[in-house]
Design brief:
microsome, globular, four-stranded mixed sheet, heme, 7% strand, 444 residues, 6 strands
């Protein structure tokens, strides 16, 4: 009798588990919406658990699965998402009717002490309030002020290259592992512009800042699964997205910086200073419901690192790779750089940088071919009807929208011969003809 009960319970549990795994894969069929399933349910969960997902490859497969369809359903990591690949429909959802899709997907705990207050993850009114406060911080004039800090980091990487070349001492071209090199450069730029710290990672590649930064991206799959699928368990066991050292180090550094500047009246042209000024301005001239606390400053500064460290270093590496295999493009860009160095007496100023058209073309084409994010997402926050040809698709609150950036960037319909690296796509003649929703390396 005992084993019979055990057997029945085992069957029930297996049945429940099976339904849990497969139920999202019938979501679109039940909705009467065309769909594409990249994997069967168990392959999908296996790739998720074993961390063997190739998002670059899978995003392209999903995009190209139905060439004649503007919209269809997909399932990624057991989450149904509506993939919208038509530029005009994307414009409607992401811009025209943006108020229905203000939020992004989010696996964070609501009480996460660092991340939940930042502009990219906060939702609804909190997002609106934060954006209202921070928008004046990110003006072109403010970026011009910060440019000098970035230029100093540029001097450090040039000094590193020169030193390594002299050390090699054989007159041959210098071989550089670019990903680690650009990571050090990016680390220094973010440290000085966002945290107010002057760090030379070329002289000290294992400094505490860069080591802690690496810990941000040292994801534990178990931790991720708990937050993603079992948030109630994550809360019980106090599981957070990142390692404890991250939550200790970055807030401590920023709080010390804020305290030091206030006590000693120190001003420095960086993001910390701009946000401190925004906070002081709000305190002197209060606006109803708008508040900027030190925790908000910590959250924004931290996300600059989290969002910029890996993406910028990878983007720089891809650009350098394309220049290396296209020497004719490299030569033309080098000539433009030399010309502007002469104009600036050996320095590149913010104003000179704005006028470097070929550099802009090269960077734009690199972002097209290798976008930092292969897809964007939005979460519907109020019921919406999307008219697609003769079909009405009802998008319910919390439904996920997938914007396939990589697929669009590699679509020959918008970019002929898309695998070719061709900066001329972005020259003065061709650039105006590019549909805004077919070029979204930084979102929409």
């Amino acid at each position: 009798m005992f084993w019979l009960i055990v057997g029945i319970l085992a069957v029930i549990l297996l049945y429940k588990f099976h339904n849990y795994i497969v139920s999202p894969f019938s979501y679109w069929k039940n909705k009467g919406i065309d769909y594409h399933l990249l994997h069967d349910p168990y392959t999908d969960i296996f790739k998720f658990v074993t961390n063997t997902v190739n998002s670059f490859e899978e995003d392209l497969i999903n995009y190209n699965a139905k060439p004649d369809k503007k919209v269809y359903g997909i399932v990624q990591f057991r989450i149904p998402a509506l993939l919208i690949k038509d530029p005009d429909l994307l414009k409607q959802v992401l811009i025209k009717d943006f108020d229905h899709f203000t939020n992004h997907s989010n696996i964070l705990r609501e009480d996460d002490p660092i991340l939940t207050k930042n502009l990219f993850i906060s939702r609804d009114k909190k997002w609106h309030d934060t954006r209202t406060i921070l928008s004046p911080v990110f003006t072109a004039n403010k970026m011009r002020i910060i440019f000098s800090l970035m230029a100093s980091c540029g001097d450090q990487i040039v000094a590193y290259f020169n030193k390594e070349y002299e050390k090699q001492g054989n007159g041959k071209p210098l071989e550089i592992e670019f990903k680690s090199t650009t990571a050090r450069f990016t680390n220094d730029v973010i440290a000085t512009t966002s945290f107010g710290l002057e760090i030379d990672s070329f002289k000290n590649p294992e400094n505490e800042f860069i080591k802690t930064g690496r810990a941000i991206f040292d994801f534990s799959m178990i931790r991720f699964i708990l937050l993603f699928k079992f948030p109630f368990i994550a809360k019980i066991f106090n599981v957070k997205l990142m390692a404890p050292i991250v939550y200790e180090f970055f807030p401590k550094v920023i709080r010390e910086t804020l305290k030091n500047r206030r006590e000693n009246n120190i001003k420095r042209p960086d993001m910390i200073q701009l946000m401190m000024e925004a906070k002081e301005s709000l305190e002197k001239n209060p606006v109803k419901d708008l508040v900027l606390e030190d925790d908000d400053i910590i959250s924004q500064a931290f996300v600059f690192f989290g969002a910029g460290f890996e993406t910028v270093s990878v983007a720089m590496s891809f650009a350098m790779y394309e220049l290396a295999i296209h020497p004719e493009i490299q030569k033309r860009l080098q000539e433009e750089c030399i010309e502007n160095f002469k104009k600036g007496d050996g320095k590149i100023t913010y104003e000179l940088l704005q006028g470097m058209k070929y550099l802009d073309m090269v960077v734009s084409e690199s972002f097209r071919k290798w976008p930092p994010a292969t897809a964007l997402d939005r979460v519907c926050n109020k019921k919406y009807t999307l008219n697609v040809d003769d079909q009405e698709i009802v998008i319910e609150p919390e439904m996920l929208i997938n914007c396939p950036v990589l697929g669009i960037h590699r679509d020959p319909k918008y970019y002929p011969n898309p695998d070719k690296f061709d900066p001329e796509r972005f020259n003065d003649e061709n650039k105006p003809s590019i549909h805004p929703m077919t070029y979204m390396p930084f979102g929409a």
